UniProtKB/TrEMBL annotation, chains A, B:
One of its GO terms (molecular function) is DNA binding. Residues 11-77 form the HTH gntR-type domain. SUPFAM superfamilies: GntR ligand-binding domain-like (SSF48008), Winged helix' DNA-binding domain (SSF46785). Keywords: DNA-binding, Transcription, Transcription regulation. This is GntR family transcriptional regulator. It comes from the Bacteria. PROSITE patterns: HTH_GNTR. SMART domains: FCD, HTH_GNTR.
Length: 218, 218
DNA sequence: CGCGTGTGAATGTGATCACAAATCCTGCCA
DNA sequence: TGGCAGGATTTGTGATCACATTCACACGCG
């Protein structure tokens, strides 16, 4: 008589830590070059070094963190060339995701996207960098989820992860007074069912945000 | 007897294991659905479970291995939809890499590509699946390295990794009597400096190999 | 005053152990 | 004969420890 211990709810410690750090990095709560130590994170989260090591190893594998020659991990400080590459990847992948989502994008989805866009505008008004990045990514993810292409979306999210700390550092340098104007173009193309216009709007939105970045000194 | 106490230059055990398994998976030495255990790999490589765990966690993060609900790891058995997605990613990314490599593709590179293609033909003649996959990937990687775009290349290699076991399983099912004919088209486009033709040839080469796969039952 | 240097603290790596869940296998019962 | 219940084994998870290397900071020499 084994008691049905429905235990699969609670996830492993290394997995919780992974998710926590991943979210933190993606939305820009960590600045570039920030160092993370095994014992520090372990103490901070009340676990031993073992699950911390696994979580960090996973994040390093995804490019969310970089590894120094001596094994120290820190958030990445991206070079100009690296930023250009990641922008090119976004410009390559995200129009494809949007095109795949287009046939399945109904009114309810467009409404949700509009709502996210409103939240994004509020983040701009409050000069809240983290909220801005989060709502911006939510806008894209919500659209792309309709593409029903998890493998492609996973690649896109990996790119976002790598850009997280850098986007946060960028936020303070550009003068923002409105949400991305391309988001409105994306919504218009979705309503019109116009795939070429949608691809163009997504590509413009993705490359525009990162263009300032590469122009600066860095 | 000789207690070699200090070994500073050597790479870490978990890193060696990671590289070893990654190579094995990418060239198709492991079939889909193959289970890997911590203690098994540890004993097999003369290390403890700790470095094995880190290597596996890293490979899982890259999609090279899948994780069951109970934490077991095994090589992935890809669904049809997943294969289609990965093929689409290759078709999206690799033409871009080839176009970036084109301006830097000189005679020496084309010669090396031809040599790799010859080795590929030998693998076909010997019905050696692993050699076939390895030389095929070498052909692409050698070309893409010239693109000087490590981040984009890394994404491409991640896709190859995910397809490794499946490509091996596929190899036995298709009748191969010649190396990919598109490789010759790629070489011709490189010699002619024709970027549109190069993009088309790469795209055709990439999608052609995986088209059979999706058509079969799987 | 500047800079290399040495010592102590901090850090990553790997091994080992305890524990619980999952899996496998055997044998029993319908 | 078929399926299922039981226990033994396997397996992943997390904690703790020892050790070598790396880093940081302050001291001392030029």
């Amino acid at each position: 008589m084994t008691t049905i211990s429905t235990r699969p709810i609670e996830t492993a410690a290394h997995d919780r830590l992974y998710r926590y750090l991943r979210q933190q990095i993606m939305v820009g709560e960590l600045l570039p070059g920030q160092a993370l130590t095994l014992r520090g994170l372990a103490k901070q989260h009340g676990v031993s070094m073992t699950p911390v090591r696994e979580a960090l190893r996973r994040l390093v594998a995804e490019g969310a963190l970089t590894l120094t020659a001596s094994g120290r991990v820190s958030t990445p400080e991206l070079s100009n060339e690296r930023i250009e590459e990641l922008a090119a990847l976004r410009a390559l992948i995200e129009p494809e995701l949007s095109a795949r989502a287009l046939p399945r994008a109904h009114f309810a989805l467009i409404d949700r996207l509009s709502a996210i866009n409103t939240a994004n505008a509020e983040a701009v008004a409050k000069h809240d960098a983290v909220s801005y990045i989060r709502t911006n990514l939510d806008f894209h993810r919500t659209l792309y989820l309709r593409a029903q292409s998890p493998a492609i979306l996973a690649v896109a999210e990996t790119v976002w992860l790598q850009l997280g700390p850098t986007m946060r550092a960028l936020y303070g340098r550009v003068q923002r007074n409105e949400p991305p104007r391309h988001h409105r173009m994306i919504l218009a193309a979705l309503r019109a069912g116009d795939e070429p216009a949608l691809r163009l709007a997504v590509r413009a939105d993705v490359t525009n945000g990162l263009r300032h970045l590469a122009q600066r000194g860095w």
